[in-house]
Design brief:
zinc; 600 residues; globular; 5-stranded antiparallel β-sheet; 5 domains; DNA_primase_Znf_CHC2; DNA-directed RNA polymerase; DNA Primase, Chain A; Dna Topoisomerase Vi A Subunit, Chain: A, domain 2; 5-stranded mixed β-sheet; DnaG_primase; alpha+beta; DNA primase DNAg catalytic core, N-terminal domain; 25 helices
């Protein structure tokens, strides 16, 4: 877990205008910056970035957040990944509590990562430059129907058919970073009987090069394709500190906006499928990197879109790949996500199908793709004869690990019912037999929880002011908090959390930092944050005076409520009468001092 103090310090150093400006063209508009929203299609700018609040807000679709949440939503990063990306940009090293790595080691690790990234970037520039004069490679790409524009968009290149062509761009060819990045192979000749000398040579030779980018657009690996029918047809970068095949998807960086516009991501089996489909009008395509689809791949895709469609060749290899993809999807299947599986005829891959049958025919195939539930049932039934007890038992045996992998949800219940019907069982029997976590079919529905009312009136005004200007929390004393809590006892816990969070941040507290802190409280503050994000900034002195007035009114109201209680008791004792007179005096003092200090 990253300390909250580090998040606050990071957001104080990062400028959200610079962060968003890397991905969105922004223009100055008054106190804020404006641009076209990257989260929905629009023709006129409704997306604002506030340098004062360090916050973005779209008046069109309602998207809003800090620099951290922008990277999460736009690039599909996880929270920790987004924090690390921002920290690297301002020279900060993220503390890692869980493994207690000393700062020096973390700095060394970060420096090595930056060195590898630099090496990959320089190699990519070299390969791209080589392609311009490599006629066989240009002819091959043209033969596959690719234009120069699409080749430039994906940064395609060419590795010369020489043992050490990278010496041209890396005079320091002995640099260990070349080996660690996977660009160069360092092989001892001792094994082949040629003595103890070491020989270095380029990993990629005579291949069309496909750069693999991470969600930040950095080149982290390569895929190289031969053009003459040699083997292996594709050669991928090895696993490195920058590149893990089970976590990365080819083309995701280039496809992000297209995925949002299309409403789905199309997952294919190869580099050329992705590039060719982008050429043919399907730029929302991505591919796994010479490995089976993993749960990490699925999670990454579902951060980008609510619908993922896997496309596989219709041959046996395609069927096996589809089964592995199904298993990877199960832990992430949910009621608000759609996962489908598309199987093309055996003689086709996506590229050849679109070229022969046309884009409309491929779009129809996508629409008719099998939902996850149907594909799962098909895999369960397989060759089993459901007319016999043995066949039904075999089907249930096949179903058990897959149903156990599904999270408890309405979707799982629907699939359980389908399996139960196919195998002549009841949903409750299936859940009991498979020992499913949090069984649904045999539980009575819990009564709906009473909905908590949104804070209103004075307490809501005070909370909004505190969220927008957490520095004001330093002016609050115990009496003020008690007064607010007394008029809104059902919001006391929420107010206490807010004040504690704001005060813990000290003098450097600001809106963006507090918003990240309020994640721990759940969605209770979301509507308030959205309202504040959409409003123009106010002068701090004006805001402070508004807070003073609200607190004064809270104190007056609390006094009046106590006075009513005393009156109801008929002021029988001298103590009660004295207390009543004290309250009257306090109330008059407050009324005469509208601008009095909040500590009153």
């Amino acid at each position: 877990m990253i300390p909250q103090s580090f998040i606050q310090d990071l957001l104080n150093r990062v400028d959200i205008v610079d962060v968003v400006g890397r991905f969105v063209q922004l223009k100055k508009g008054g106190a804020n910056f404006m641009g076209l929203c990257p989260f929905h299609n629009e023709k006129s700018p409704s997306f604002t970035v506030s340098p004062t609040k360090q916050f973005y807000h779209c008046f069109g679709c309602g998207a809003h957040g800090t620099a951290i949440s922008f990277l999460i939503e736009y690039s599909g990063m996880g929270f920790v990944e987004a924090v690390k990306d921002l920290a690297q940009g301002v020279g900060m090293v993220v503390p890692e509590r869980e493994d207690n790595i000393p700062l020096a080691q973390r700095q060394e690790k970060q420096a090595k990562s930056m060195a590898l990234s630099d090496v990959m970037s320089r190699a990519n520039d070299f390969y791209r430059a080589q392609l311009r004069s490599a006629q066989p490679a240009i002819g091959y790409l043209k033969g596959r129907g690719l234009t120069g524009e699409i080749a430039a968009r994906f940064g395609l290149g060419y590795s010369p058919d020489e043992w050490d062509s990278l010496r041209e761009v890396f005079p320091e060819y002995e640099n260990e970073a070349l080996v660690e990045s996977g660009l160069v192979i360092d092989k001892s000749e001792e094994e082949s009987g040629a003595g103890g000398r070491r020989k270095r040579y380029d990993r990629f030779r005579g291949r069309v090069m496909f750069p693999i980018r991470n969600t930040k657009g950095q080149v982290i690996g390569f895929g190289g394709r031969v053009m003459d029918g040699g083997e292996p047809k594709y050669l991928n970068s090895p696993e490195t500190p920058l590149f893990q095949k089970g976590s990365e998807l080819y083309g995701l960086f280039e496809a992000r906006q297209a995925i949002r516009e299309a409403g789905y991501a199309l997952v294919t089996e190869g580099y050329m499928d992705v590039v060719a489909l982008a050429q043919l009008g399907f730029p929302q395509a991505v591919a796994t990197l010479g490995t089976a689809c993993t749960p990490v791949h699925v999670q990454k895709l579902l951060r980008q879109t609510d619908q993922v469609i896997f496309s596989f060749d219709g041959d046996n290899a395609g069927r096996r790949a589809a089964r592995r993809a199904l298993e990877a999807c199960l832990p992430h299947a949910s009621d608000n996500k759609t996962i489908k599986f598309l199987f093309l005829p055996k003689e086709h891959d996506p590229d050849s199908y679109v070229r022969e049958m046309g884009a409309p025919a491929f779009e129809e195939q996508i629409r008719e793709a099998l939902p996850l539930s149907q594909f799962l049932l098909r895999e369960i039934i397989g060759e089993n004869d459901l007319r016999t007890p043995e066949g039904r038992a075999h089907a249930q045996f096949a179903a058990k690990p897959m149903l156990q992998a599904l999270p408890a949800s309405s979707l799982r219940l629907q699939i359980v019912r389908s399996v139960a019907q196919a195998t002549q069982s009841t949903p409750a029997e299936i859940e009991a037999l498979f020992e499913l976590e949090k069984p649904v079919a045999r539980l009575r529905a819990a009564p709906p929880r009473a909905k908590r009312t949104a804070p209103a009136g004075l307490e809501r005004q005070i909370m909004r002011l505190l969220v927008a200007h957490p520095q004001l929390s330093a002016d609050l004393d115990a009496e003020a908090l008690q007064a607010v809590a007394s008029i809104a006892p059902d919001r006391a816990e929420m107010l206490s959390f807010l004040v504690g969070a704001a005060q813990s941040m000290g003098e450097q507290a600001n809106f963006a930092s507090l918003v990240e802190h309020l994640r721990e409280a759940g969605p209770e503050f979301d509507s308030m944050i959205a309202e504040i994000a959409s409003e123009s900034e106010s002068e701090f002195d004006v805001v402070r005076a508004e807070m003073a007035g609200a607190i004064r009114q809270s104190k007056i109201r609390a006094i009046e409520e106590e006075m009513q209680v005393l009156v109801a008791s008929n002021l029988r004792t001298e103590e009660e009468r004295n207390r009543y007179r004290e309250l009257m005096q306090s109330k008059e003092v407050l009324k005469r001092q509208p601008g009095a200090a909040m500590a009153g």
